[in-house]
What does this fold into?
Amino acid sequence: MSSQPPTGPPSGPVPRPSGPAPGPPPPSGSGAPRGGPRRKRTLIAAGAAAVVLALVVVLVVSLGGDGDDDGGGSAVSPAPTDTKAAEAAAHAVATRVALAPPDWGSGFTRHKPYEVDPAPESLVRENCEFASRPSRIGTLASLQRNVTETASGIAGTSEVKVFADEATAKQYLADARDNIHRCPDQFRGKERWNGVREATPPQLPGFDELVSEEGRQVVSANGASVNDLYVIATGRDGRNILSAYVVGKADLDAQIQKHATDSLQKMHQRLEQQPEAAAGR
It folds into this structure.
């Protein structure tokens, strides 16, 4: 999948990683997950030659990132000079754009955890395991809000990501699309998803790019058999990424699709009203 499942029923809670998601040892031969060991930055302050070496190390790290991306998500932009100010402005945008329960419609309530901030990125490993990782370099804000509708059992997540520049946002969306096409059948612990595919995105104006994903969850986090449909509608506007994730019983297909489209559209309308977002496009 290209996004974290909602934390309400039927998917179960999504863990917040404290570091890169653990994974199985790389398989032998071809097909091993991309990425490598994390480089350690060492400052050598003895003599002119050491100073030169330190400058070279800094340059390499700035251009290449940490290298521990585990399949996509490479750093494509340095952090802005005034990082704290940029992050504060981006977080203000994300807080105002992400949806609250009333925005989803009557009957929706907060689900614990209601907010995940910062929200991790998703990845699908080479063995088709769905996992999480911390945000890439150049991410200024990444916020999720989770809701659920008791009557129908539909759960939803609105997610807003703001990047330092448009190039990083484009790369994020390209990586998300790669996740969709990595494996039609995916797993995480006991959970199982089948029929993961890229679908036709909703026709919404104002976005630079739109991507839609669909699939079915067939086993829940506790190992029970289920038949749930999920839809992820994602749009990019400049350096901003908006996503609406909705999941529920398969026979509620029309409602699930509508919630995903309406939620993405509502977030985009709010984004256009934010002066900080307009200035950064």
User: Anything to note?
Assistant: DSSP finds six helices and ten strands in the chain. The longest helix spans residues 253-272.
